[in-house]
Write a structure and sequence with these properties.
Elements lengths: L5 H17 L2 H4 L9 H16 L7 H26 L6 H7 L3 H20 L3 H18 L15 H4 L1 H12 L8 H24 L11 H15 L2 H8 L1 H12 L1 H7 L14 H27 L7 H5 L3
Membrane topology: Multi-pass membrane protein
Organism: Leyella stercorea DSM 18206
Main location: membrane
Length: 320
Amino acid sequence: MKQREISIDALKFFAVLLITNSHMEPLYGEYSQLATGGAIGDVLFFFCSGFTLFLGQERRFDNYYKRRINRIYPTVLMWALMASVFFRQQYNMAYIVLYGGGWFVSCIMIYYVILHFIRKFAFNHLKDVFYFFALLTLVWYWLIDKPIGYNMYGATYFKWCHYFLFMLLGAILGSHPTQRKIDLKIDIFKLIGCIILFYCILIVGRKSEMLHNLQVVSLLPLLGTTYYFYKVCKSNALKSLYDSRIVGAIMKTISGLCFEVYLVQGVLFTDRFNRFFPLNIFIVFVIILIVAYLLRCMGRWFSQTFKDGDYEWKKVFMLY
């Protein structure tokens, strides 16, 4: 990329906040319902991955996939070591290495394969590919067993299908970067409307025996949420924040640690600071960022160790 796509950094920043918040139920105590936003954070990250993949040049599959492995697995291996030594996760080392520390890594490594061949053979028909996977999602949803309380964004393999739609949406917008008219007030209003509609459909679909089959309709406002989030992040107002010295540095740091935060957060959530609520939310999040930064440094060091040439220590410890 000749010029950094600021909107993608901003989206990753919000993705980190939302995904982390969705796992903070122990920290909220009696306000545990505020620990939400994970599905929105996940789709923002998938969107960003699809967007940036289609900005770069096309490569032969082996070289393309090697770059994906080199980006992800040095960090995963270092997390397996860190989790074992410092967080008593030695019995989970094999799981961390084999599954990348969670479903997300395994899922996205599969997406990378599919997306490469879509780009190679159907680059000019991305919208048709999107419609095909949308139809596949509907058929899959219709066929699976859905008991009352079923959450299509929870612990289910079905989400491995429908999340790909958001990666494709990112690919479509990344491969055809046109100037889109941005009216910040209207786009924020549409964004909030999509979020409200998403949660309304999801709540009704999970509680009503009659309407639980309609839960899949929540994908429509979730796609709208992703698109309008992207538009808001492309606005001049967000660009001004991103370019500011303090806020910009915070956004760049957090967005740059997106993957590492996902890996480390699970072992760091604690109710030890709950007596300081709501300050405990900030305290734990800062701890997560510190550990995530240390993990990134270790991942970069590990990656450089197996390459020719001298260590580039500045790159190892670079903040963003």
